[in-house]
Amino acid sequence: MGVEQYVILGAELDFYAYRGASHARVFEVDKPATRRCKQRLLADTGKSSR
């Protein structure tokens, strides 16, 4: 069966959800400023936040 979803608290600039978590749904919880920075970095590389 395995893990279907998990939560990363204080994810900061961890990109695991974008590079290797296709088997599970990932929720990241972080400060708004950090989320905005991460979203800009993802946009610059052509990725989108899921």
From TrEMBL:
Biological process (GO), any one: methylation
Organism this protein belongs to: Amycolatopsis rubida
Record has Methyltransferase as a keyword: yes
Pfam families membership: LCM
Cited SUPFAM superfamilies: S-adenosyl-L-methionine-dependent methyltransferases
GO MF annotations, alphabetized: methyltransferase activity
The protein's name: Leucine carboxyl methyltransferase
InterPro entries from the UniProt entry: Ppm1/Ppm2/Tcmp (IPR007213), SAM-dependent_MTases_sf (IPR029063)
Alphabetical UniProt keywords: Methyltransferase, Transferase
